[in-house]
Amino acid sequence: MTSSTASPVAPATAPAFAVARATTPRPAEERAAVLAALASSGGFGEVFTDHMARITWSTDAGWSGHRVEPYAPLELDPAAAVLHYGQEIFEGLKAYRHPDGSVWTFRPQANAERFARSARRLALPELPVADFIGSLEALVAVDEAWVPGAPETSLYLRPFMIASEAFLGVRPARRIDYLVIASPVGPYFKAGLAPVSIWVERDQRRAGPGGTGAAKCMGNYAASLAAQQVAYSRGCEQVCFLDGDENLEELGGMNVVLVLADGTAVTPALGTILAGVTRDSVLTILRDAGHRVVERAVPLAEVRAGLADGTVREVFACGTGAVVSPIGRLVGEDFDLPVADGGIGPVTAAVRRELTDVQHGRAADTRGWMHPLVHVAGVGQA
Predict the structure, then answer these.
(1) Distances (CA, A) of 103 to 143, 177, 187, 361
(2) Matching CATH number, 18-190+361-374, of 3.30.70.120, 3.50.30.30, 3.30.470.10, 2.40.30.10
(3) pTM higher than the cut 0.85
């Protein structure tokens, strides 16, 4: 079927991106071997394409120097502010190869708007939505050959912004670099679509009221890594953090949703957690399917009781990397509880199927979520 039936609202036009192509790109045979191995390799974000997009900001010139250039190490002064004060934000989204050969991405305007919110929280300049989307279009146009087409594969796009001014002093930086890099990926978890085990962290916190939990910045993820090591040591793939009142917040890199026996979907309310684009999309799909959706505090005690008495029938995680991933087991210092029979619940499976079918072009995009990056002649164009 056609790649998309709804036309997304286009942002203002971005300045043209100058292109400097790599003189020694990865040989076509090597690239093909990398793409062929994605579905079975279990590696995520380990191989990168030949180019990256870049824009520079300064207090004098604003955003300038829009370009695509060869992927290469960054040259940073040892006093660069990002290295000392952590002034950095990032995003994550994917490019999908559709059956007709065209390439699309999912809700990039939502990512661009969240990127701007993160920038405000970290005292960074806000990148215009047009520049954000334009950088994706420019990079994928140059590195289109890196977009895989096999099931469960995509080109992961990582926009990020760093304070590159060299100085020692606690103030917002006056020079910023924005870049986009790309990595062809397969399944986020090595087991693919299989229930994962989650360690519930009760001592370490990733965020608090008034903090940076709702921003997508490096510090939040650095603060999650010690607990993630504990999760691995307990045989779990991910960690779920709690707030100070022992309510569920989010996983290290994903939001979490519970499905109750009556079909109600419950998820932690926004505030100290990231407003996930996948989360918002999943909740929309659930509402459209007739499920009652509740965003509120979710006490750990309530979850434990619900798993024990059957009130909680399904639990799943959602995010750009894994899309929708079933959770089969919750583990803590004093409990080890399966979720229902430990399998993939019907609601989880239905939501994941509907979302991934739209993303990969197997179903019509009736909500206008997909944005074209590379057209095929005569296809998907007005």
Answers:
(1) 11, 27, 19, 9
(2) 3.30.470.10
(3) yes
